[in-house]
Each structure stands twice: as structure tokens, then as C-alpha cells.
Write a structure and sequence with these properties.
With 113 residues, the protein is of the alpha+beta class. 30% of the residues lie in helices and 31% in strands. It has one domain: Nucleoside Triphosphate Pyrophosphohydrolase (Alpha-Beta Complex). It contains 3 helices and 5 strands, in the order E-E-H-E-E-E-H-H.
């Protein structure tokens, strides 16, 4: 999805609510940000940390999921969205660390664990 504020392509993400576990946060954020209901794929969880600026880091935890609907809900945070393959996605994302995770996800999906 293309984020209005940062003007970058990224995955849905956000902060956990009180007493919420990270997998529930991921499911909720996807539903809230783009209106898609997902079921997380067990045994795939990756974490990256990158610098937002010299004084601030961001931690992002990523999961694989299965999509149960494809209705995208437009909102003020999201300018547009696309479904794309791994190579195109890697070219759109600004953080290099996402590329490694996408490769791991592809390997996981193919069963080459």
C-alpha cells in the first residue's frame, strides 16, 4: 500500500493495543488499514529494525497470511494499493531488509524450509 504520510510503499503495520499479542495486532492492523480479513500462517514470523532518522529506530514484525476477502477499504492513510509479485514488491519497498524477508517467505511457501 502507498502511505500518504511517508509517501512510500509499505505493508500494513501499527502498534499493539493494551494486552494485545503481536499476532492479534497484525490481524487487526490489516483489517483496519485496508479492510482485508486474514488468517496468519503458523510458523512464519520475521522481525526487522531500521532507522527512521539518526535518533529513532523502528521495529517491524511481519507474518505470512492467507487472505479471506479482497475488499480494500479506502481511507486517509492509504493513497493506493496493488497486488504484486516478490520482484516488483522488492523494487517498491525502500527498506532493503524487507527483501530478505520476502525471499524467506517465498522459500517458506514453496516448502523449501
Amino acid at each position: 500500500m502507498f502511505q500518504q504520510k511517508s509517501r512510500t510503499w509499505s505493508f500494513p503495520k501499527g502498534h499493539s493495543e493494551v494486552f494485545e499479542i503481536e499476532s492479534d495486532t497484525a490481524i487487526r492492523e490489516v483489517r483496519e488499514e485496508i479492510g482485508i480479513n486474514v488468517k496468519l500462517v503458523l510458523d512464519f514470523r520475521e522481525e526487522i529494525v531500521y532507522n527512521i532518522n539518526p535518533l529513532r529506530q523502528k521495529q517491524v514484525i511481519l507474518f505470512l497470511s492467507e487472505v479471506s476477502n479482497t475488499v480494500i477499504t479506502p481511507n486517509s492513510e492509504i493513497k493506493e494499493y496493488i497486488w504484486t509479485d516478490r520482484e516488483t514488491t522488492c523494487n517498491l519497498l525502500i527498506h532493503e531488509k524487507y527483501k530478505d524477508i520476502l525471499s524467506k517467505a517465498e522459500t517458506f511457501i514453496k516448502g523449501d524450509r
